[in-house]
Amino acid sequence: MWRRRDDADNPAWPGLVDIFAFTLAFLLIIWFANNFPQKVENLEKEARDLSARLNLLAGEKQNLQDLTQSLREQLAQLTQTNLDLSGKVKILEDNLRDLDAQRASLQSANFGLSSQVERLSQENATLRDVGRKDWQELLRLLQNRLAGMPLTIVANEQEKEIEIHGKPNITFETLKYELAAADKQRLKAVAPILSELRRQKKFFITINGTADPREVHSASPPRSNAELSALRAATVAALLENASPGLGRSLRVMGLGVKGREKALAPGEDPEKLYKDYRTVSLVLKIDVAALMQGDKAGQTD
Q1: Cys-Cys link to 163, which of 84, 107, 154, 268 (CB 3.0-4.6 A)?
Q2: Bridge partner list, 206
Q3: Using H for helix, E for strand and C for coil, what is the string for 42-68?
Q4: 181 and 114 in a common domain
């Protein structure tokens, strides 16, 4: 402003500007000179930090590469497993279809079996009624004809059987199959009655022989309890046939073997008496349902 007022040039002004600029540049140089080592040190530290971080990143990169490779291998295994599972699923689906076909076949067969079972049930119900009336009439006749005789009658309506026991039981001596005289007389008295009833009703007679539980070991007959029991039944069958010829065609001999269990004997106890009732025979009269049905069929044909 002053220079404007004077409208004249000041010859000292440019020099003062140069001095000021030089002084400012000198001060900046001194300031940079004082801070340069610290800046270099800071830069070196930052370089070391960057190098450490680069090494750490390189390790992490390697870990990531290893992890990526592992994931790729696992993916390949999963892919193969998936293919295997797909094949197994296909096999299972095929098996399931086969099972469905078999189930349908079994259902069809089951339907046929159900029909057969129903038919057999009806036939069984019919068979249960076949001979019931004959059994009832036979039981009544036996009770009348055997009344007063030393015999016991046991009725089994479900099986259409009538069991006859002696009272007391018909028994045998140990290892023997010969009848006592009294038992022979009872059986001889029963034989003609059974023959007469056999002409009226269709039934067969099973003779059940038994032995006591003591084991039999012999080189000659009877060689076992089963054989001994069969011989006792056969003895009774022979007596009935001799007492009433022709009755033998209706007789069935059955050796039941051991009856009861062996017991520990008390002091002074007689085994002959203890096991006496185990060495016995009984007569079982059973309605011949097959013969009745055969007769019914013959009557229908006629």
Answers
A1: 154
A2: 252, 284
A3: HHHHHHHHHHHHHHHHHHHHHHHHHHH
A4: no
Q: Say yes or no: 205 and 238 in one domain.
A: yes
- Residue with the larger pLDDT of the pair 238 and 116: 238
Q: Alpha-carbon distance 128 to 121, whole Å?
A: 10
Question: What sections of 130-180 are H helices per DSSP?
Answer: 132-145
- Report whether the peptide linkage leading into residue 11 is cis, meaning its omega lies within 30 degrees of zero: no
Per-residue pLDDT tens for 10-48? 565 567 778 888 888 888 788 766 766 777 777 788 888
pLDDT tens digits for 44-99?
888 888 888 888 888 888 888 988 898 999 998 888 888 888 888 889 888 888 88
Residue 49: inside a domain = yes
Looking up tokens 């009833």 gives 197
- Ranked by mean pLDDT, the top range of 1-10, 36-45, 228-237, 263-272 is 228-237
Residue 9 lies in a domain: no
- Are the C-beta atoms of residues 268 and 211 closer than 8 Å to each other? no
Q: Taking the model in full, what pTM does it have?
A: 0.58
Residues 158 and 283 in one domain: yes
Domain carrying residue 291: 132-301
Same-domain status, 118 and 182:
no
**Which positions ≥6 away from 263 have C-beta within 8 Å?**
274
The answer on pLDDT for 144 being more than 80 is yes
Give the three-class secondary structure for 280: strand
- Distance (Å, whole) CA 292 – CA 289: 5
Residue 251 backbone dihedrals phi, psi, to 5 degrees: -95, 145
